[in-house]
Amino acid sequence: MFTSAFLKGETWGLPGEAVEHVETHAAHVFLVGDRAYKIKKGVTLPYLDFSTVEKRRAALVAELEINRVFTADLYLALDEVLGEPVLVMRRFAASALLAWIMPHGEIGPPLSAKLAVMAARSHALAPRRDVKGSDVMTGLGAQLSKAFIDSPDIFRADDTLEFHALYESALRAQRHFLNERSERGLVRRCHGDMHCGNIIVEDEEPKLFDAIEFSEKIATIDVLYDLAFLLMDLWSGGERGAANTVLNRYLHLRRAEEDLLGLALLPLFFATRAGVRALVTADLAHELALRNSMRERGQALDWFRATIAYLKVPPPLLLCIGGFSGTGKSTAAAGLAPHLGSAPGAIHVRSDVERKVLAGVGEMERLSPASYTREASFDVYAACMARAEKALAAGHSVVLDAVFAQEDERAAVVELARRTKSQFAGVWLEAPREVLIARLATRRGDASDATAEVVERQLRYDLGHLDWPRVSAGGTSAETLARLRETVPYRFDGPA
């Protein structure tokens, strides 16, 4: 099926044009001019069969149909060249790949937030499937255990037994919950391969491509397991802040579907994604001569160790950050969240955002003074507490930022930590009056509606007995973060 003619420009209607060839485990891609042409290899693997022209054509038809749902402007048509079915795509620059962007520059909050929107939209579009979530994860766990056992030259037997014990324990604990999520429609025909190598960024907008087309079974998964691939990819690539932002934003966008109890599944989902990476890399190592496979063997072992590490979940922490408007509570919370608890870091619960949710308005829409009465604030704190409790009950750490000017508010979060068997830390940020007012005067594009008048009123509050450590927040956000790390009696390094 593959001949040298595919490497000639005239084959693609562009005589003399250079042809770039990219080979994957199951396809050949030819880059010519502004087009990319994909043909399937005539291979048969445990999870796919492209052995005949008819099967390859059917796979490309499915690929075109499925991926047009995610990125219609990238997938153009199906053609036939030299007797082979060909998928015609719009060519994009290699530098547009998120996998390229990640090591060449930080993925900041704006792009991270858009990645969450991309993922949430894909799951809203994904058709529901009547499959038990526990069956999906049981099958994946069995596949991983067998693969690790079959590769004793890379994975030590004792470590494989530890993986199996940890995985089975997590699966037993979550079996009922996995199935309950299936009944709620959270097992869907997803993209299935949502990692950084299958996302491009064009005009500052991320776009999914290359969804799994060859197996309905592999792509029929819990939506959080689909998301976990992107989160793990960002996390393992050093973009912990991005991974944390994507998770927090995704859960905010899908409040109607996700109640935060699903966070209990992330260790299992992360471990499975890392395990699949270990399996695939080990298979690649076995295709190479021993002397040429040392890098792949090391990578497979690193992924395997990450698999075990994800299954060893630390106890949750409730970190409360209080202080008047303008002290930088939300900035500090967002900066600390990626470094606390299970991957990909703590859930950030913010009173300013919960107030807007209760009011049924967008985050940037200003509220009237009626939304800031004592009674209204009581409802906001109750909403924050409820959201934090769901995450803590799922074994996931939380950073909760609010003013916390009242003694009863501070006592309530201490009781919440006790009730959910979580560690607790509370800190109070403070800064000079002129700094607070200056910050609010320059604040743009933020959920907070605080003004100079609000600060003046807050400064007259009687805080009562405040036993939380006081942290100076009058300098830069980096200086505040450094002081918080020194003040809070908790290890700020996050999971491996």
Structure, explained:
With about 500 residues, the protein is an alpha/beta fold. It folds into 3 domains: about 5-90, Phosphorylase Kinase, domain 1 (2-Layer Sandwich), CATH 3.30.200.20; about 95-310, Aminoglycoside phosphotransferase (APH), C-terminal lobe (Aminoglycoside 3'-phosphotransferase, Chain: A, domain 2, Alpha-Beta Complex); about 315-485, Rossmann fold (3-Layer(aba) Sandwich). Helices cover about 50% and strands about 15% of the residues. It is built from 17 helices and 16 strands. It has helices spanning about 55-70, 100-105, 110-125, 135-150, 155-185, 215-220, 225-235, 240-255, 265-285, 295-310, 330-335, 350-360, 375-395, 405-420, 435-440, 450-460, 475-485; strands at about 20-25, 25-30, 35-40, 45, 50, 75-80, 85-90, 185-190, 200, 205-210, 220, 315-325, 345-350, 400, 425-430, 470. It has a 5-stranded antiparallel sheet with strand order 1-2-3-7-6, covered by helices on one side. The protein is globular. About 40% of the residues are buried.
Overview in brief:
With 496 residues, the chain is an alpha/beta fold. The protein has 17 helices and 16 strands.
